[in-house]
Design brief:
Layout (H helix, E strand, L loop, with lengths): L2 H8 L3 H9 L7 E2 L5 E2 L4 H13 L4 H12 L5 H14 L8 H13 L2
Antiparallel strand pairs: 1-2
Helix pairs in contact: 3-6, 4-5, 5-6
């Protein structure tokens, strides 16, 4: 799907999608000969994960760290969830709002198998 379609599907602007690519949160898209970015379906849950984490108060640096851990082979969404729990406890918040983030991580995990 093209960047405009991805933006529409996720509610994330094309400019923000390009920024997430630049800083390494989102995998670089394949480009067509006409230099259009083309994304696969796994970009949707990944963007949902990033936005959900931002809404929970995680910095882009924290999100990048969690994604780096998650992308290692053999790392499950449970471990990423533990990292989120630690971050939230450090900030004096509870994990109550992160059930959605765990589900999104699981969706991302299924989309990139």
């Amino acid at each position: 799907m093209l960047i405009g379609e991805l933006a529409k599907a996720t509610g994330v602007s094309p400019k923000t999608i390009r920024y997430y690519e630049t800083i390494g949160l989102l995998k670089l898209a394949r480009c067509t000969r006409g230099n259009y970015r083309v994304y696969d379906e796994s970009a949707i849950p990944m963007l949902q994960f990033i936005r959900h984490a931002e809404r929970l108060g995680f910095s882009l640096k924290d999100i990048r760290q969690a994604l780096r851990v998650w992308r290692r082979k053999g790392v499950t969404c449970g471990i990423v969830r533990q990292i989120a729990q630690q971050k939230l406890e450090t900030g004096g918040r509870s994990l109550a709002g992160t059930d959605g983030i765990a589900g999104t991580v699981a969706a991302v995990d299924r989309g990139t198998d």
